UniProtKB/TrEMBL annotation:
It comes from Salipaludibacillus aurantiacus. It comes from the Bacteria. GO terms for molecular function: oxidoreductase activity, acting on the aldehyde or oxo group of donors, NAD or NADP as acceptor. Signal peptide: none annotated. InterPro entries: Ald_DH/histidinol_DH, Ald_DH_C, Ald_DH_CS_GLU, Ald_DH_N, Aldehyde_DH_dom. Keywords: Oxidoreductase. Residues 13-469 form the Aldehyde dehydrogenase domain. The active site is at E245. This is Aldehyde dehydrogenase (NAD+). Belongs to the aldehyde dehydrogenase family. The keyword Oxidoreductase applies.
Length: 473
């Protein structure tokens, strides 16, 4: 049992003002694995005070000092590798291989990338008639979701540190422990007192408090659209800048010259990754009518490469969903899907032999209409939809017919068609043929997928204000 009821405020671990706690559940066992403090408004105020006090010196620290801090954090993160992997498997239910090969390197990559980006970053530019200065935005409130416990926090923390912006982090209550290890790493890395604070607690108290606090200048949030909307409304009261990374319903367009088996493999890896709990997951697969049958056969053949089960067991690719609530949500979509489309595999209920734990069956629907609920709403589980098209323009039109625009994927061979599709999908990130992720590539959404960009140099820009000085001597 982890009883971690302290917050990290002003360079030390301090007891909460209140005595209430929140249970953290291991989704594979359904058992309580630990407790965190349900922080209070007074705890948040203390953290804001510390961050404001740190602002004058932290915002004026040199680029070199901040590069060193980022490097120290990356080094500390590497030293805690085994522990981070283990904690993410227990709190999120990510299979050990997924924790090791996806979560761990993503959390690390942002610190390394921010150090590299900062080395080439210019905070001052002579533009002829004026000098342009880029200055820290002030105190940043970071609110993170549970689906990538280190990645989501690291990308925001790394950019804020690079920009010299003091931080108040509120991790998701379902997965707080990896973020608390990050706080220990940051403490040991030599980040000045008050420049990094972590306050645990509920979204309705600490998250809500961050978005409306007059002492916080900027809120970077990742999570659901519903909460994103609340944050924008709260932030409006103090005209606070917000960056929102919300959901998606991203298309995978399979071109008619694609290798069917490769396409099926890429589509399956995409949707099964992190048990489908990925905002940029490719959850609508557009396939030429002529390839439908062979593509479906190949999906069914290859599904056995993604075994579901105990995340601590070797060879498991798909773990449980993060919580009972998430399991219920996914089930309700699967039941809706049975009415709207043809079930190719999977369906409602738990996989055989996995009655304990929030396990869902990998589920594929075919004969799906792009305007059905399962093709328009984010499910956040191992569930995908197959939609057929005639001609690439029809595929693009349907791909864009969604309120979201976070990511898009194209699989095929002809370079001209790939370029055409990539430049016509209205989304913030396109991946071609399962290409690896570049940590300097900006990440964020068009339309209702969000506002602003994270990762690399664009991520740093979010934490900066622009000043023009006319007549600088
Ligand atoms: P959210 O409620 O949006 O939670 C995300 C973060 O916001 C958590 O830290 C949460 O705190 C906090 N929060 C909750 N209410 C808040 C409020 N009123 N003001 C400020 N912050 C608040 O997501 P969820 O309920 O965990 O998941 C619901 C759905 O959101 C999922 O099914 C999925 O569709 C989507 N989702 C999307 C993403 C991405 S990456 N876009 C990630 C996770 C979930 P607590 O943890 O304490 O509640």
């Amino acid at each position: 049992m982890r009883n971690e009821t302290k917050h990290y405020i002003n360079g030390e671990w301090v007891e909460s003002n209140g005595s209430e706690t929140i249970d953290v559940i291991n989704p594979a066992t359904e058992e309580v694995m630990g407790k965190i403090s349900s922080g209070t408004v007074e705890d948040l105020d203390k953290a804001v005070k510390a961050a404001r006090a740190a602002f004058p010196s932290f915002s004026r620290s040199t680029k070199e000092e901040r590069i060193q801090l980022l490097k120290n954090i990356a080094e500390g993160y590497e030293k805690r590798k085994d522990e981070l992997i283990s904690v993410m498997t227990d709190e999120l239910g990510a299979p050990l291989t997924v924790s090791e090969e996806v979560h761990y390197p993503m959390g690390l990559g942002h610190f390394q990338q921010a150090a590299d980006s900062l080395a080439d970053f210019s905070f001052s530019e002579d533009r002829g008639g004026h000098t342009l200065l880029k200055e820290s935005i002030g105190v940043s409130g970071l609110i993170t979701p549970w689906n990538f416990p280190t990645n989501q926090a690291s990308t925001k923390i790394a950019s804020a540190i690079a920009a010299g912006s003091p931080i108040i982090l509120k991790p998701a209550s379902k997965t707080p422990f990896a973020a608390m290890i990050l706080a220990e790493i940051i403490d040991e890395a030599g980040v000045p007192k008050g420049a990094f604070n972590l306050v645990n607690g509920s979204g309705s108290v600490i998250g809500n408090g961050i978005s409306s606090h007059p002492g916080i200048d900027f809120v970077s949030f990742t999570g659901s659209g519903t909460v994103g909307e609340k944050i924008m409304k709260n932030a409006a009261e103090t005209i606070k800048k917000v960056a929102l990374e919300l959901g998606g319903k991203s298309p995978i367009i399979v071109l008619d010259d694609a290798d069917v088996e490769e396409a099926a493999k890429t589509a399956l890896s995409n949707i099964m990754n992190n048990t489908g709990q990925v905002c940029s997951a490719g959850t609508r697969v557009f396939i030429p009518q002529s390839m439908k049958h062979s593509f479906e056969e190949s999906l069914l053949d290859q599904l056995s490469n993604f075994p579901v089960g105990d995340p601590r067991k070797e060879g498991i690719a798909v773990g449980p969903l993060v919580s009972e609530d998430q399991w219920e949500t996914v089930q309700s979509y699967i039941k809706k899907g049975e009415k709207e489309a043809t079930l190719l595999t999977g369906g409602p209920g738990k996989p055989e032999g996995l009655e304990t734990g929030y396990y869902a069956k990998p589920t594929i629907f075919t004969d799906v209409s792009n305007d059905s609920v399962i093709a328009q709403e984010e499910i956040f589980g191992p569930v995908t939809t197959i939609i057929t098209y005639d001609g690439v323009d029809e595929a693009i039109e349907m791909a864009n017919d969604t309120v979201y625009g976070l990511a898009g994927y194209v699989i095929g061979k002809d370079p001209e068609t790939i370029k055409y599709v990539a430049s016509n999908i209205r989304a913030g990130r396109i991946k071609v043929n399962g290409e690896k992720t570049d940590f300097n590539g900006p990440f964020g959404g068009f339309k209702q997928s969000g506002i602003g960009r994270e990762w690399g140099d664009f991520g740093i820009e979010e934490y900066l204000e622009i000043k023009s000085v006319h007549g600088m001597p």
